[in-house]
Structure formats: C-alpha cells, structure tokens
Write a structure and sequence with these properties.
alpha/beta; 2 domains; 6 strands; Trna Endonuclease, Chain: A, domain 1; DUF1016 family protein; globular; 6-stranded mixed beta sheet
Length: 325
C-alpha cells in the first residue's frame, strides 16, 4: 500500500508540474499576442494611416472584422485594453509573465508609469490575485504611505494614512467599540495584513505585558521582516489625545526593554484613530519620535475625491513636519 501511495504521489506531482508549465507557457504566449496587437494598433495610429479619422469608428470596424474571423475575444473593448497594455508597457522585456492578462488590464489603468511598475512587482512579490490588486488600486494603496519609497527601508514607507478597513463590512448605522473593530480585524486577518502593507506578520492580540508594578495589554502586535522590528498597533474610536500618545510611547519603550531581541530594530508604535488633532500631534512626543505614528482609519471606502483629499492633506503635513530632517 505504501509503494502504491508513493507511485500515486509521484505521478500526481508530474501531472501537476506539467499543467503548471502548460499554463505558464499559454499565459506567456497570450500576453505576447495581446502586446503585439496593441503595438500594431498604436504604430498604425502613429504612422497616420487613419490620422484624421482614427478612433472609435476605425477600432470598431477592426473589432468587427476580427470578431468574424476569431470570435468575441477581440471586440472593441478588448482591443482598447490591448492598446492601453502596450502603451503602458512599450518594452516587452518589462512584462512579467507570472501575471495574468486581467492583472495587466487593471495595471494599465494606472496613470503614473512608476506606479504601474510598482503594482506589477507588488503583485508578484505578494502573490496578489486580481481582486486584491483591484482593491488596492481603488484605495490608492501606493499613495497612502507617508513617505516615497527608496532603496533603504525606513518606518515612514510602511505607514499609511489613512488605513481603509472597508473589508470588515461593519454596519454603518452602528457605533462600534474598539473591541468590536479589533475582533473584526482579527476575523479578516488576511485582508488586514494586506492593508498593513509589505512584510507584516501577525504576532498577538491583547498581548499581556507584566512589569513590577502593573499589567498592560497591547491591542495588536505585528513583526515586519523588512524593517526587522515589532510593530504595535493601538485602536481608538475617537479623536487622538495626549493620553493615547503617552500610552503608546510607554508601550514602545516597554517592548524595547522586555521583548525586543538584540538583532531587532527599535519597535514602532502606530495609533489608529478616527480623528487627529494636529496641534496635539505637533506638540507631543509624536513630533520628535521617529518610531511613533498616528494615522486615521476609515471603516468604509471614502469617495475617490475624499480619499485623494485625505491623502494629499496628510502628505503635505508629513513633508512640512520633516522638511528640516
């Protein structure tokens, strides 16, 4: 029986490997075909053969001809997608064939070239499916970090403002407690880790810290293996106050003393609140401690204009606070 199981497992692995190889090959060929079609359409535009009238009508006629010959996969909408795909990735060698055509259709809608490349790499590094990619583009994942990315990881690159927790699906007509939000985040841990960003691993909820004089409970503890440090998260359902900042400062110092290992970097503390008083932020330890952060969070996806405004306000505020650094 053991020999039979071994034979089955070996054959199953051969079949699985062959199917994966076939899928990769087919996917690569399809991506190249769509890229070539997009290239031909764009080059035809540039050569001016339809200079005056080239546009929807011409593409519609082309789609009609291709549809009769090859089926509905080459309708006007798909041809537009191929055109956008080529314009987004005009160099074939820049295309990573690990991703699907749907990934590239979504990425091609991103306006900035650098962000398109970043989303492509994030999809590969983090194995984002197309639903995750779509959600991250919609919530402006890259724009919500406090500082531009660089070659050297630093805490601000890993902190967002605001955080978007629409995936919790909490009823909008209910007042939620910190405990209920925390429980919902744990129940949606995969989505929560994705929203936290790259390199986060969950460590504990309500971690109990004992000192000589008191007991303390930290809401959420993570470890970021890029920053090589612990990240403490404290949830607040109201406006940020002095006591919240002082508490997190104490937690971070305590964690550095009691939990941090010699090869770990200093612990980061993030206070998540629904509102921030910028005066309190400016004149508190947050202004001088590079390892303490306060970020807003939203339980529901804001309208695009509101989200853009929130991001821009916090980016300007962060740059003003750090312009002398």
């Amino acid at each position: 029986m053991e020999l039979q199981n071994h034979l089955f497992n070996t054959i199953a692995q051969v079949i699985s490997n062959a199917r994966q190889t076939a899928y990769r090959n087919v996917n690569s060929i399809m991506l190249r075909m769509y890229w070539e079609i997009g290239r031909l359409i764009v080059e035809d535009e540039q050569q001016g053969s339809y200079k005056a009238q080239y546009g929807k009508a011409s593409l519609k006629n082309l789609a009609g001809q291709l549809g009769l010959e090859f089926g509905k996969g080459f309708d006007e909408r798909n041809l537009n997608n191929m055109r956008a795909y080529y314009r987004s990735f005009p160099i074939w060698n820049a295309v990573r064939t690990e991703l699907s055509w749907t990934h590239y259709r979504l990425i091609s809608r991103v306006e900035e070239e650098q962000q398109r490349l970043q989303y492509m790499l994030l999809c590969i590094d983090n194995q984002w499916d197309t639903r995750t990619l779509q959600r991250n583009i919609q919530t402006q994942y890259l724009n919500r970090t406090l500082a531009p990315t660089s070659t050297h990881p630093a805490p601000p690159q890993f902190i967002k403002d605001p955080y978007i927790f629409e995936f919790l699906n909490l009823p909008s007509d209910t007042r939620h407690t910190e405990g209920s939000i925390e429980s919902a985040l744990i129940n949606h841990l995969r989505e929560f880790l994705m929203e936290m960003g790259k390199g986060f691993a969950f460590v504990a909820r309500q971690q109990h810290i004992v000192t000589d004089t008191a007991d303390f409970y930290i809401d959420l503890v993570f470890y970021n293996y890029y920053l090589k440090c612990f990240v403490l998260v404290d949830l607040k359902t109201g406006k940020l106050g002095h006591a919240d900042i002082g508490q997190m400062d104490m937690y971070v110092r305590m964690y550095n003393d009691l939990k941090k290992q010699e090869d770990d970097n200093p612990t980061i503390g993030i206070i998540l609140c629904t509102e921030k008083d910028e005066t309190i932020v400016k004149y508190s330890v947050l202004a001088e401690n590079e390892y303490l952060f306060a970020s807003k969070y939203r339980l529901y996806l804001p309208k695009e204009e509101e989200l853009v405004q929130l991001i821009e306000q916090d980016r300007i505020k962060f740059e003003l606070d750090h312009e002398e650094d």
